[in-house]
Amino acid sequence: MIPVIDIAFNILDLLIIARVLLSWVRPDPYNPIVRFIYETTEPILAPFRRIMPRGTIPIDFSPLLALLVLDLARRLLIQILLGF
Known about the structure:
single chain; 84 residues; mainly alpha; 76% helix; CCB3/YggT; YggT family protein
């Protein structure tokens, strides 16, 4: 059970990193792979974008915050499962 959870979190991490890399180029928004990455990561990143303050720096730190929170959630979930 724990390897499945770890793999799922690793896939989410990779998808978020892929989205960051895609933001550096102009991907075709109609490409099925690009659409999958955006549709999969947007529900994770949107809440962090809402709580992040809008400043003068045009850098989106929500992926970094999401990766940190996902790592904490992974560790907590694994610790809870190992406790049983």
